[in-house]
């Protein structure tokens, strides 16, 4: 009997080796990681350079406590990250995971308004469906039924007004303009922030809003005195083929707070955080003089060293451009699969954050009976391809889609191999 508390009763393969886009288990079976774990392993597996940077940092300076010091590696990293994202003047707040990062963003937004003498602004508008994290606050902010019900009551429900998901049938501006009605209904003087994923991840199969959406959202937020939080935990760090995902369509938009995770240290260490624009930082520091919030392991030097080594790889190997190019190749291949497999209703996404929307060929609708995506994913796993079946998109609880997001370092030949395995899984399942 195992003493490990697994997420479910199914047994888990035990990984013994990992390299590039491949993982090997203890039976010798090799799998192509088509979803980078949970869209984490952006630079691929087995990067000895990242491990060496972490070891060197641990040897040189390993804190045995957190939060009372900065470190040279953190100072360097914050500067490098602001330059990579093209967010001059932004301040990096480091934490250990995406949920902590979103909790931090929500608290920062609330404190920002308190310091401005507007303590009544506590609500955070989010979308349905959406996933912002597993901790109770981030889960309350999320627009997904499946995980909420089991843990109710969450934080007070009226604190999270909901906006509909992006509608590709509207122009980006018309789509974003729907935020006005949500703000008016919530009472604008009670709203602290609007938070969204610029490309929706697990909850809606890489749904991408049209050009103009984020610029208009930022404009409306400014008009109403509300902060714009871009949750780029999954879509960020180059995965969508751009450094800052809110600028996906080339818009000159700068969110007040950008939340990052997963790809920051690409799974090598627990590292996430947020980038706060100068005006947010200055307002908070100019009031109480401190952000009254923190976590013990925030900015741990070994995690930050991993982040720095990962950023070296992302920049040195031009992985943002690679995500754009390999993403176009993978999307074209998925279009070809869609033409041959009637249960594939749509394929979409950008860069290497792509979604395969499944459904009943007879009705042309995604099915609320759960199972199709899991069946395809299970068959793919047997064949040696890992994918990420999502939930939420169909009725806010269940999903009928697969998310694909291999490491940004995937080669053209490996993209073809991925497509061949998915083709077979769709045929068999
Ligand atoms: N935001 C988004 C958009 C995510 O996809 C996730 C994780 N899937 C999170 C937040 C939470 O991150 P973590 O699991 O690291 O807490």
CATH evolutionary superfamily of the largest domain: Type I PLP-dependent aspartate aminotransferase-like (Major domain)
* CATH topological fold name of the largest domain: Aspartate Aminotransferase, domain 2
The helix/strand class is alpha/beta
N-to-C span? 32 Å
Q: What count of structural domains?
A: 2
In the sheet with the most strands, the strands line up as: 4-10-9-8-7-5-6
Q: What is the CATH C-level name of the largest domain?
A: Alpha Beta
Number of helices: 13
**Poorly predicted regions:** none
The CATH architecture classification of the largest domain is: 3-Layer(aba) Sandwich
> How much is the average pLDDT?
94
Helicity range: 25-40%
Hetero groups in this structure are: 4'-deoxy-4'-aminopyridoxal-5'-phosphate
- The value of Rg in angstroms is 21 Å
Which descriptor suits the 3D outline?
globular
* Main pleated sheet: 7 strands, mixed
Question: What portion of residues belong to β-strands?
Answer: 15-25%
GO molecular function, one term: pyridoxal phosphate binding
Protein name: Aspartate aminotransferase family protein
InterPro entries: Aminotrans_3 (IPR005814), Aminotrans_3_PPA_site (IPR049704), PyrdxlP-dep_Trfase (IPR015424), PyrdxlP-dep_Trfase_major (IPR015421), PyrdxlP-dep_Trfase_small (IPR015422)
Keywords: Aminotransferase, Pyridoxal phosphate, Transferase
């Amino acid at each position: 009997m195992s003493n490990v508390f697994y997420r479910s009763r199914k047994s888990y393969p035990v990984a013994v080796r990992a390299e590039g886009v491949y993982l090997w288990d203890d039976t010798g079976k090799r799998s192509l990681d088509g979803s980078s774990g949970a869209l984490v392993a952006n630079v691929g597996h087995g990067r000895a350079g990242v491990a060496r940077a972490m070891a060197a940092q641990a040897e040189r300076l390993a804190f045995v406590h957190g939060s009372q010091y900065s470190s040279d590696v953190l100072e360097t990293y914050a500067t490098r990250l602001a330059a990579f994202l093209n967010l001059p003047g932004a301040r990096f707040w480091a934490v250990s995971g995406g949920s902590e990062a979103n909790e931090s963003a929500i608290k920062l937004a609330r404190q920002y308004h308190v310091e401005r003498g507007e303590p009544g602004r506590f609500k955070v508008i989010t979308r349905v469906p959406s996933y912002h994290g597993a901790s109770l606050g981030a889960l309350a902010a999320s627009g997904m039924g499946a995980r909420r019900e089991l843990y109710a009551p969450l934080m007070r429900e009226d604190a999270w007004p909901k906006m509909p998901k992006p509608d590709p049938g509207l122009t980006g501006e018309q789509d974003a303009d729907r935020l006005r009605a949500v703000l008016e209904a919530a009472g604008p003087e009670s709203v602290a922030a609007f938070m969204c994923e610029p490309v929706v991840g697990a909850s809606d199969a890489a749904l991408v809003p049209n050009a103009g959406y984020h610029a208009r959202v930022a404009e409306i937020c400014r008009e109403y005195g509300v902060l714009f939080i871009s949750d780029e935990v999954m879509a960020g760090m180059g995965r969508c083929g751009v450094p800052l995902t809110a600028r996906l369509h080339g818009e000159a938009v700068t969110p007040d707070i950008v939340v990052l995770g997963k790809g920051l240290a690409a799974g090598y260490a627990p590292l996430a955080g947020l980038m706060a624009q100068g005006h947010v930082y200055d307002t908070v520091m100019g009031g109480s003089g401190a952000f009254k919030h923190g976590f013990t392991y925030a900015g741990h030097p070994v995690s930050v060293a991993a982040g720095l080594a990962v950023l070296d790889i992302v920049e040195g190997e031009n992985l943002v451009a690679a995500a754009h190019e390999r993403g176009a190749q993978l999307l074209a291949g998925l279009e070809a699969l869609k033409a041959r497999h009637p249960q594939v209703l749509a394929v979409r996404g950008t860069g290497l954050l792509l979604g395969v929307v499944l459904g009943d060929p007879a009705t042309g609708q995604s099915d609320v009976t759960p199972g199709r995506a899991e069946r395809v994913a299970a068959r793919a796993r047997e064949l040696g391809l890992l994918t990420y079946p999502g939930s939420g998109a169909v009725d806010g609880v269940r999903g009928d889609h697969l998310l694909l997001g291999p490491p940004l370092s995937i080669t053209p030949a490996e993209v073809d191999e991925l497509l061949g395995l998915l083709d077979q899984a769709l045929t068999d399942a």
